[in-house]
């Protein structure tokens, strides 16, 4: 469960990234995906971080001229 304060902080951070146009923004993880990640890696997301990622998932969009980058993460 995400606290109201955490949700506001996360939403504000996501909106700032959109304003800066510095990352491609994709839909955030679902509750099932969060649970799998937390279980697999043995930690729990903080409320503000979870809210930020749930609101929108910033992903790296490699440039054509960026060396050593050959793919973008995709959901299974």
Run of helices and strands = HEHHE
Query: How many distinct helices?
Result: 3
| Count of domain modules | 1
Helix content: 40-55%
Major sheet: 2 strands, antiparallel
Are there runs of 5+ residues with pLDDT below 50, and where?
Answer: none
Proportion of β residues?
5-15%
User: How many beta-strand runs?
Assistant: 2
Please tell me how large the radius of gyration is: 14 Å
Distance from N terminus to C terminus (CA atoms, Å) equals: 25 Å
Overall residue-averaged pLDDT value? 76
SSE inventory with pairings:
Blueprint: H1 4-20, E1 24-26, H2 31-41, H3 47-55, E2 57-59
Antiparallel strand pairs: 1-2
Helix pairs in contact: 1-3
Briefly say what this structure is.
The chain is mainly alpha-helical and 76 residues long.
Give short descriptive properties of this protein.
76 residues, mainly alpha, 3 helices
Would you mind describing this structure in some detail?
The protein has 76 residues and is mostly helical. The protein has one domain (4-59). It is built from three helices and two strands; from the N terminus they run αβααβ. The radius of gyration is 14 Å and the shape is flat.
């Amino acid at each position: 469960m995400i606290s109201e304060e955490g949700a506001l902080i996360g939403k504000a951070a996501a909106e700032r990234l959109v304003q800066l146009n510095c990352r491609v923004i994709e839909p955030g993880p679902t509750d099932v995906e969060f649970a799998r990640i937390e279980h697999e890696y043995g930690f729990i997301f903080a409320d503000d971080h979870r809210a930020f990622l749930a609101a929108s998932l910033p992903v790296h969009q490699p440039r054509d001229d960026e060396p050593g980058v050959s793919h973008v993460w995709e959901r299974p």
